[in-house]
Design goal:
This protein has 9 helices and 7 strands. With about 240 residues, the chain is an alpha/beta fold. It folds into 2 domains: about 80 residues; about 150 residues, SPOUT methyltransferase, trefoil knot domain (Alpha/beta knot, 3-Layer(aba) Sandwich). The chain has a 7-stranded parallel β-sheet with strand order 3-2-1-6-4-7-5, sandwiched between helices. The longest helix is centred in the last third of the chain and has 17 residues.
């Protein structure tokens, strides 16, 4: 998906659910039936109950691998903090996942945390900490944002101090930490599998599903945003 601003109003915010459904029907005529079937199958499996925060990731292959993991586990939102390093996912590693995952940029961790708290997230830093717990024991009844730090030094003091909770992955070897992309993949697998087996209401609502499929449609159509905006005039 194209980069989204944290407080950006949806392109379709002025349409009701019936109008969005009609617009999607029109847009779906412009891409293949196979692609539409894929959108219809995958959209109900996406979630914003679990989200990811990346602080100052500087290696493009790690940024890309995290996006790919988010897409694979159905996690829709990634929040990117660029204190010093520009988030620049490498296409060969992401294999197109950046087209289907929403990502938001912030200049500071404080601004990211403020926005996530506004959205009702509990912010959980991933690191060994005196008050931490194992990933399998983390309470995910509330929307949860997992925070991952830069490759060399990990999370900044501001990111650690501002978190609501701390979590770690069990390790039994000599190496003291996982690569960030591996840590993200293991964490997301653990949390999303547990989430999907729970009675938590983790799914997008009907309006969010239509928004998502319309944004996906714009990725599937040549000059998609321009085309969909033109179709909106007839709705």
């Amino acid at each position: 998906m194209p980069e989204r601003l944290p407080t950006e109003k949806s392109l379709f915010a002025n349409l009701d659910t019936v109008q969005k459904a009609a617009l999607y029907e029109r847009a779906a005529e412009l891409f293949s039936d196979n692609k539409r079937a894929l959108f219809d199958r995958l959209a109900p499996l996406r979630t914003r109950h679990i989200s990811v925060v990346l602080e100052d990731i500087y290696q493009s292959h790690n940024a890309s691998a995290v996006l790919r993991s988010c897409d694979c586990f159905g996690v829709q939102d990634v929040h990117v903090v660029e204190n010093r390093n520009v988030f620049n996912p490498a296409g060969d590693v992401a294999v197109g996942s950046s087209k289907w995952v929403d990502y938001y940029r912030y200049p500071t961790i404080q601004e990211a945390y403020t926005e996530l708290h506004r959205r009702g997230y509990r912010i959980v830093a991933t690191l060994p900490h005196e008050n931490d717990q194992m990933i399998g024991d983390l309470d995910i009844s509330q929307p949860t944002a997992l925070v991952f730090g830069t490759e060399l030094t990990g999370l900044t003091g501001e990111a650690i101090d501002g978190a609501d909770a701390y979590v770690k992955i069990p390790m039994y070897g000599f190496t003291e930490s996982f690569n960030i992309s591996v840590c993200a993949a293991l964490s997301l697998f653990s949390l999303t599998e547990r989430m999907r087996r729970s009675d938590i209401r983790w799914q997008l609502d009907d309006d969010e599903l239509l928004d998502l499929k319309l944004h996906w449609a714009m990725q599937a159509i040549r000059d998609g945003e321009k085309v969909v905006k033109q179709l909106m005039f007839d709705i």
